[in-house]
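Figure 2 data, in text form.
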Amino acid sequence: MAKAAKKDEFYTQLPDIERELRHYRHHFESKVVYLNCDDPRASNFFHYFSYNFEALKLKKVVATCYKSQAVDLFSQNDSEQAIWLEYTGDKDGNRVPDPSEIGVKPLIKENRMWLGYGFKRNMAHFASVYEDTAADLDHKEGMIRVSGVQWFTNLDISKRHEDFVLYKTYNAKEYPRFDNFDAIEVSKTVDIPLDYRGVMAVPITFLNKYNPDQFEIVGCTYDYGRPAGWDENISMAPIIKGRSVYKRLLVQNRNPQ
């Protein structure tokens, strides 16, 4: 049924987690619990470890997720951003993990993770029980082809130190400003102006060309990536002349010409 409906994402029930983990309580003292691919507002594992943080005498709970599943302070459901969340215990004495006590850290923005060289044509084959609908040339028995797949790594590679050659210059007509925050729209990575000193909103495909020596990622649209010092009352939805555009990274050229 799950295979036919393509609904193969399942969540462990909280009572089942409690029933099992009560046998392991003495193992958790002073430990860091890492929850891989766990949206904190959809995961009952995050709920269990955060609400029992003090009782288990944990040191830290770390959750990482890519695309969110629930709509709330942490999860926008339109996020294409890898994030890392840390909880280190109750700070205000109410024994509840409040939003202000859970640190949200975009790994790419902090230059702690970046794109690798990637798969050929951004397509990868994975072992799967699903039917592979790829063309004959790309068909592999027992595998499924998935487009738009990237490698992520924290190992230094020469690719991330190669300068991206810029050739266009800024003009107000070609690069409109956003209605609600101070940045210009650059709809294609190849069109980044070489002489603009302010914040530029670029597509996420920019990450394929990102060199931290050449550019700084200061944030992204929507609240996960509000740049430091920006007014909290400003909406970070990317809107130009009343029209919404797709999600953007906010970057600055370190050495504009």
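Caption note: Residues 68-80 have pLDDT under 50 and may be disordered.
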